[in-house]
Amino acid sequence: MAQFKIYGRDDVLRPLRTLLSDTVHAAAVDVLDLPATKRFHRFFLMSEEDFPTPEGRSERYTIIEVLMFTGRLVATKKAFYQRLYCDFAEHLGIEAVDLEITVVEAPRHDWGIRGQAGDELTLTYQVQQ
User: Fold this and answer.
1) Rounded to an integer, what distance in angstroms lies between the CA atom of residue 35 and that of residue 29?
2) What DSSP line would sit under 19-58, residue for residue?
3) Other residues' Cβ atoms within 10 Å of the Cβ of residue 24
4) Per-residue model confidence (pLDDT) at position 81
5) Residues 6 or more apart from 125 whose CB is under 8 A from it?
6) Cα–Cα distances in angstroms (integers) from residue 78 to residues 40, 84, 91, in the given order
7) Half-sphere CA count of 44, side-chain side, radius 13 A
8) Does residue 113 register a pLDDT over 80?
9) What is the dihedral of CA 58, 54, 91, 4, to 10 degrees?
10) Which residues contact 110 (CB under 8 A, 6 or more apart)?
11) Residue 69 in 3-state DSSP?
């Protein structure tokens, strides 16, 4: 289980939303081993006034927050970051300096999913990797 929140400027990301979602999803499936059918993406697209650009960043500045179960190796998470940096530059024209990624992990028992605690779910994929 993983949820992705994507923050950025509306005028920049709205036209890229489908490609952005596909890019994040491909990395999550390939690197985090999430099932292809699990696409939990939420877009928070804001005006320039509501999403100020930090110094040294462009109008393409994008933040991705990932909330997922604990258990993945540090090396796996670093590989995920690198995949996103490469794919965002190649497919979306968003360079590494304009992409910030944060992973927040929570134990499975801290999730409520489909009427039960997350640690009671039978998963079709491996979290510990």
Assistant:
1) 6
2) HHHHHHHHHHHHHS---TT---EEEEEE-TTTSPPPTT--
3) 22
4) 98
5) 33, 34, 35
6) 21, 10, 20
7) 11
8) no
9) -150
10) 118
11) strand
| 63, β-bridge pairs | 7, 100
Q: What is the pLDDT of residue 22?
A: 97
- The Cα 59–Cα 115 span in angstroms is 41
In a 13 Å sphere around the CA of 32, the CA atoms on its Cβ side amount to 30
What's the mean pLDDT when you consider all of the chain?
Answer: 89
β-bridge pairing 116-117 and 112-113: antiparallel
| pLDDT tens string 46-96 | 999 999 999 999 999 999 999 988 888 999 999 999 999 999 999 999 999
> In angstroms, what CA-CA distances link 121 with 21, 108, 110, 114?
26, 9, 12, 9
